[in-house]
Specification:
It is built from 13 helices and 12 strands. It is of the alpha/beta class.
Length: 314
């Protein structure tokens, strides 16, 4: 059994600081230098013989754990556990270490940026200026007068709510968990899922991806939103039906949408990418210097100690 750590995450080794800090603790550790997540066979080959690993977007299922009898600890780089079969890990005696919320500020700030960009049509107007078109359409709106619906009020959702309240916005929230103390402290109004969709000028998604949230927002849910409303997803692809969003944008049943995450990455739903007033970014929510270091250091610490994952929370 190898004493060093196998770092399957392709993002972790991009930080020289994280590489040096891990090697100082675990000399001889190996890194995924392919620049992409590892598929099942490549992942098994890379992790074989190691007792400890750091993973990112790799899928760890029954077959992977079954093929790696030496594996004892997996420390998660980043947040979201939808790619790890926690029950299979327990059956094979593998501890999944995970620190939730380490990227909350970075994702929350991107979310606010999306909201402002949509409300002020920043992307299409900037492209107009680049092409020599000087058009001042008016009709933009301020966050301070908006009703913002936060779907999922865990670590990221709460930070988004705080920032929206700082702008002066009215904030609604829906979550299967009760966050009554937080709601009272920040003046957030908890509502039913249907009410959040119907009343919000901006709906922002911050739930984990699991069986209960896959396809949570589809054509039916979109039809209950205001025609002038915007939809933001910086959580996980698969929560929102991308084809339904594309249709709603084209048919002007939704004013705009912005996604940092997609069901398939890179995305394959070309209709959505070409839809009017859509903004798409390549999963950059946690891609700040500060968030990268926070996630990486949490992953390093998790190799030796830290809370074990018991369930997903954004």
């Amino acid at each position: 059994m190898r004493a060093e750590v196998a770092v399957a995450s392709h993002s972790f080794p991009k930080s020289q600081t994280l590489r040096e800090e891990l090697l100082a603790r675990y000399p001889g550790s190996t890194f995924n230098e392919t620049g992409r997540p590892l598929g099942r066979d490549a992942l098994i080959a890379f992790l074989r013989g190691h007792a400890k690993a750091i993973t990112g977007l790799e899928t760890l299922d029954e077959a992977v754990f079954d093929a790696l009898p030496d594996l004892r600890v997996v420390s998660k780089y980043g947040v979201g556990l939808d790619m790890i079969d926690l029950e299979a890990a327990r059956r094979h005696g593998v501890a999944i270490r995970w620190t939730p919320g380490v990227n909350r500020q970075a994702v929350a700030e991107l979310t606010i940026g999306f909201m402002i960009a949509l409300c002020r049509s920043i992307v299409p107007l900037a492209l107009n200026v680049r092409e020599g078109v000087w058009r001042q359409p008016g009709g933009g709106r301020q966050l301070s007068s908006a009703v913002i619906g936060v779907l999922g009020c865990g670590h990221v959702g709460q930070q988004v709510a705080r920032l929206c309240r700082a702008f002066g916005a009215t904030v609604l929230a829906h979550d299967v968990r009760a966050y009554d103390e937080f709601y009272r402290e920040y003046g957030v109004q908890p509502v039913a899922f249907s009410a959040l969709l119907e009343q919000s000028d901006i709906v922002t998604v911050h739930v984990p991806l699991d069986a209960s949230t896959r396809g949570l927002i589809g054509a039916h849910e979109l039809s209950s939103m205001k025609r002038a409303a915007y939809l933001v997803n910086t959580a996980r692809g698969g929560i929102v039906d991308e084809s339904a969003v594309a249709a709603a944008l084209v048919e002007r049943r939704l004013a705009g949408a912005a996604f940092d995450v997609f069901t398939a990455e890179p995305p394959v739903t070309r209709e959505l990418l070409r839809a009017p007033n859509f903004i798409g970014t390549p999963h950059i929510g946690a891609g700040t210097h500060e968030a990268v270091l926070a996630m990486g250091r949490a992953a390093i610490a998790g190799l030796d100690d830290g809370p074990e994952a018991v369930g997903p929370e954004e």
